[in-house]
Amino acid sequence: MYERDTIAAISTALGEGAIGIVRMSGGDALVMANQLFKGVNLLTQPSHTIHYGHIVDPESKQIIDEVMVTLLRAPKTYTREDVVEINCHGGIMAVQAILDLCLQMGARLAEPGEFTKRAFLNGRIDLSQAEAVMDLIEAKTNKAMQASMNQLQGSLSKKIRSLRQTMLNTLAQIEVTIDYPEYDDVEEMSLQQLKTTAQAISQEVQHILKQAQSGRLFREGINTVIVGRPNVGKSSLLNRLTGWDKAIVTDIEGTTRDTIEEMVNVRGVPLKLIDTAGIRQTEEVVEKIGVERSRKALEEADLVILILNQAEDLQEVDLELLKASQGKKRIILLNKQDLPSQLDRNALAESSGTATIIETSMLEEAGLDALEDEISNLFFKGQLQSTDINYLLNSRHTQLLKQALAALDEVQSAVAMELPVDLIQIDYTRAWDLLGEITGDSVQDELLNELFSQFCLGK
Ligand SMILES: Nc1nc2c(c(=O)[nH]1)N(C=O)[C@@H](CNc1ccc(C(=O)N[C@@H](CCC(=O)O)C(=O)O)cc1)CN2
Ligand SMILES: Nc1nc2c(ncn2[C@@H]2O[C@H](COP(=O)(O)OP(=O)(O)OP(=O)(O)O)[C@@H](O)[C@H]2O)c(=O)[nH]1
Ligand SMILES: [K+]
Ligand SMILES: [Mg+2]
């Protein structure tokens, strides 16, 4: 069924490493490798064995490298095809030379992700699992890695399949209602029931989308932007949280000219911390651009840390920033507590709403614990534990889920309008299909087959 050509690629990072792997997959992988390998006859060796020997250029007879060759016969392999892995010396020369020899033997250079694509095409993993492999490779935080591992093990697929199963049951009943009106015991599939299922599924889909939003935060780090007027202590905060003097701190206003990013881990919460140029009216060209970037960073933030200097009274820019950050998750710091207070707390209360206010002194390193507590509270408060971050959605998944939601909405309003069942069924089936595209399960014909196999009518 899977007579695909044999592909080859370097499967380890190019660069100086101790070992590099050239991997081949396909029906001719073993034969090709055997032509290059001087050692035992690979063709007669059992599967899942590893063999010491040399790679020799069959034309020049030149020894290219001393290697270990792993032999994996279909179907218990990564791609479900025959796989050979040539473990050679690291660096660029040996792996490249051995890859070239594989290509000379007739293998084709694999496209990016093609081994994993074959794992999908040959049915070992589904689409969302294949996508998880890519996420795993790109994971930058421990939590991100756990999340993609969950996905790789099929958590999203499992969830989607169970939703589709529920929908399928409803569809099956409708089908019977339409085609076999004489079965009056199943004819009771009321429109109301259809609506209820659509509602339930729609809630679940919304839940997945919401969870995934949190998942994204953990995968990429929470975009945390430090804003405030010049000299309030933004760069000082960045340095305190990162534990080293990443940003320049001086008593000169406008020291930070451009946004500075650093990943930090606050009580297990990964933050992409962004220090910005102090916001003020300026005609200075470079600073002006910096201020623009600060405002943009504020707009894109998942979390805003707004710093005020409590040794001065609130200024227009402070009020403007309080307003601009209103709709966001935010924490307000009253910095420079070591200095006499000048800030009118009542005026602040009017503009700060329900935001948490923390008193700090970067100079004396005071209030940082309270800040870390608050950050971890904001993101862990009951709803989010690392083990819950099951779903990693890429934009394809998100699109499909949103489209499915729209279709389910249509179902609900069609029911409200008392449209005929077979019309409503179209939207319902569309939602079912859209969800199926996430796992790669959706095929139109499949719907009918499944319906019949599920709902054995005995005719
Ligand atoms: N040398 C090497 N290391 C590697 C990989 C690889 O391809 N080669 N992997 C590449 O990503 C990862 C391991 N992932 C793998 C996933 C599935 C199978 C596999 O053979 N699955 C079969 C048989 C399982 C079994 O024996 O029980 C299957 O699911 O049918 C192999 C590796 C990480 N380390
Ligand atoms: N007394 C006192 N001084 C502080 C405190 N935090 C920061 N400073 C000082 O205030 C000055 C400005 O600090 P920065 O961290 O550079 O301020 P900033 O907000 O990054 O300033 P810009 O980059 O210019 O916008 C420096 O001299 C710091 O040492 C504090 O809590 N107390
Ligand atoms: K400064
Ligand atoms: Mg600064």
Automatic annotation (TrEMBL):
Gene3D superfamilies, per the entry: P-loop containing nucleotide triphosphate hydrolases, Probable tRNA modification gtpase trme, domain 1, tRNA modification GTPase MnmE domain 2
Functional note: Exhibits a very high intrinsic GTPase hydrolysis rate. Involved in the addition of a carboxymethylaminomethyl (cmnm) group at the wobble position (U34) of certain tRNAs, forming tRNA-cmnm(5)s(2)U34.
One term under GO cellular component: cytosol
HAMAP family attached to this UniProt entry: GTPase_MnmE
Enzyme class: hydrolase
Residues noted as binding GTP in the record, renumbered to the chain: 231-236, 250-256, 275-278
Keyword Ion transport: no
Name assigned to this protein: tRNA modification GTPase MnmE
